[in-house]
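Please check these two lines:
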Amino acid sequence: MYYKSTRNSGVNVTSAQAIAQGISKDGGLFVPSEIPAVSMDDIKALGEMTYAQRALFVFSKYLTDFTEAEIRYCVDSAYNDKNFDTANIAELAHLFDGTYMLELWHGPTCAFKDMALQILPYLLTTSAKKLELNRKIVILVATSGDTGKAALEGFRDVPDTEILVFYPEDGVSAMQKKQMTTQEGENVGVCAIKGNFDDAQNGVKAIFTDEKIASELSAAGMMFSSANSINWGRLAPQIIYYVSTYAQLVKDGEINPGDKINIVVPTGNFGNILAGYYAKKMGIPVNKLICASNANNVLTDFIRTGVYDRNRPFHTTISPSMDILISSNLERLLYHLCGENDAQIREWFGALAQSGRYEVTDEVKAVLKDEFYAGCCDDVQTKECIREIYGKYSYTCDTHTAVAVKVYEDYKAATGDNTKTVIASTASPYKFSGSVLEAIGADTDADEFALVEKLYEASKIPVPASLAALKDKEVRFTETVDRYEMKDYVFRALGI
């Protein structure tokens, strides 16, 4: 299995190279040269396995330059009861008849990003050893809330690495900010930027693709890589939980082998739902991939019309991890849908960079409508959905998952489709205690940690130990820079 660049199909690298490099030198994203297959016999066998064993199976299809022992080391180091508070790693909760919450937030930072970022450090350091890079790897991260903490925790004190995280100063929840700014570790750095997530993401990409910066870093014995989902090592682990979930549903007798399911994902940077697309193309029977957006509904409009236009107001919402107007992983999907036409990708994304807009072909529009459904809701509707779920099912969900539930309800009303459905639940409600409590009608006149206690009284969900411990942690990182000063911060932090 080799990997191409979305902007140059002539690129041909191993998975270790793709993971270590993070992004192609031409600015494109690495994609697999082919999508491997999984059979229903495989699914039945996977049903009898642990999550780590299922991960080993899927990774062996994509990381063919890794030995079985190397993959086993990575998955066993990541997916265990030390890192996750449940033996199943990803839990399935029945919300109502035929609808399941795929709880992806039982890791150390209480967000779905842990599913990938607990294993990425092992994938990355193993890749570096295989390639004999002999350089310190500098991880640059732009975050809209959850990726930052999950990456910091995953890479904390990992030998021969440094990790620097940028977040929008007014674009994350109080709990998310506290998680990042109190981060422990000798190799970590956190900096706020004056701007939104797109500004942070564009700044990181600009640093990545600047040859002069890369040269200065190389002279200092360092190299860049990424922990954002532009890195294939971040995206591949997300495929696993969709394959695993289907296998679990079959094992539990909830579906028969070959039965189709819908997958609903609260979507920002498009990586999580793209992983569902890859799972479908591997052979997991998926009827519809349902893309749920908040008030930043650029993806909803794109899937419905084929026109991507980021020239619109940016909204700061109660679901901040979805406050994104430039969805990087969409480039991977479009590369596949347009027949791996790298010239077409360069044209579209060149137009996006210059004018903020592009329109795909009629052929691509037709495939988008066939594979995906898209919907959106605002903060008022999100809170109404949290309150409704809490009242009807005694289930407390966070502000991102509620967006997915609301859009799914709209989809069912519009289509009458009763296919069994898996909703990706992407964060613990405790990460957004104030908004969740407000939604269910509770008093929110308290500090962040008092709100956590109030949410426990309302939900009876155990408070994650990692969040409870934040109360008395000292803030280590307080710096804020303009987005144009990000490079200077990187150099200062690295002592260059």
About this structure: The longest helix spans residues 232-251. The chain has a mean pLDDT of 96. The radius of gyration is 21 Å.
